[in-house]
Structure formats: structure tokens, C-alpha cells
């Protein structure tokens, strides 16, 4: 009976030893799995950060392109007003869509109606709406794009300011002088933004 008890004790010791070894192996496997999962999460987070940065840069480029397009359209419209205004005052009238106007107020009203009819004003408005939406996407920039965001806000402000002159007001001299200054300011701010996003 003592031999049998001895064998049972040895079997019990072997079982305990195997249980300890198995527990140790399971603990090591658990730590390895946790480590691998953590590394995977870090890679996923880094990839998401990279994609967010790329998307932000795409939105920044889109905002720049929309600002250039809007600025160009506004410049054309404003130049059209100043040419008509100048012609009506100093050239004894301006011709708009085949009709001659000698009164500059009538000439400006006809030019505005022409821009409205051909869709230029609606295109500027649609571009500005799209730009507003794009600028909303640029809020809360990643740390590496904070400076670009600040420069884009300056350019955006200049575009919105320029947009207020799509409807002529004041005198010819004041309007042409202010719009020329605003156009130069916008060009400067767009150049600063272009340099930042290239």
C-alpha cells in the first residue's frame, strides 16, 4: 500500500508541476498576445493619423483652389464694373449686351443684371458656399498644420472681404481704388497659402 501511495504522490507532483508549467506558458502567451495587440493598435493609430493628415492636406489644397477660383471670378466681375463705370463717365457711355448707357448708375445696373443672367453671380455664390464648407473641415487642424490653417484663415478672410465688392458702391474712384487694394491683398495671401501647401 505504501508503494501505491508513493506512486499517487509522484503522479500528483507531476500533475502539479505540469499545471504550474502550463499556467506559466499561458501567462507568457497572454502577455505576448497583449503586447502584439498593443503594437497592432499603435500601428492602426499611426496609420489613422497619417490618413487624417493626408485628408487635411487635401482639404487645404481644395480650399486654396476654391479661393483662387472665387478670387478670379470676383476680379473679373469687379473689373467689368470698373470698365463700365469708367466708360459711362468718361467715354460718353458704356455698351452692355448691345445697349448703350450714358448714365453710370444705369450702366452698372445693366452690368449687374448681365452677371445675374449669365450666372456669374450665382457661380461666385456657389463657390463661396463650397469654400465655407471646406473651411469648416479645416477647423481643429493636426498640430503640424496649425500654421497652414492660420494662413488659410487669412486668405479666406481676404476672399470674403473681396466678395463684398461684387456689388459696386461708393464712387468710381473709391470703388476702383479699394477693389484694387483688396485684389492685391488677396493675391498676396493666396501666394502665402500656396507656398505653405506645396
Short structural description:
This protein is mainly α and 198 residues long.
Would you mind describing this structure in some detail?
With 198 residues, this protein is mainly α. It has helices at 2-90, 104-118, 120-137, 146-163, 172-197; strands at 94-96, 99-101. It has a two-stranded antiparallel ribbon. The protein is rod-shaped and about 130 Å long.
Keywords:
single chain; mainly alpha; 5 helices; two-stranded antiparallel ribbon; 198 residues
Tell me about the biggest sheet? 2 strands, antiparallel
Order of strands side by side in the largest beta sheet? 1-2
How many β-strand stretches?
A: 2
From the N-terminal CA to the C-terminal CA, the straight-line distance is: 89 Å
Determine the structural class based on helices, strands and strand pairing: mainly alpha
Could you report the average pLDDT, rounded to the nearest whole number? 91
The fraction of residues assigned to DSSP E strands is under 5%
How large is the count of helical segments? 5
Question: Could you say which overall geometry the principal axes of the C-alpha atoms support?
Answer: rod-shaped
How large is the radius of gyration? 35 Å
Binned, the helix content reads over 70%
Order of helices and strands: HEEHHHH
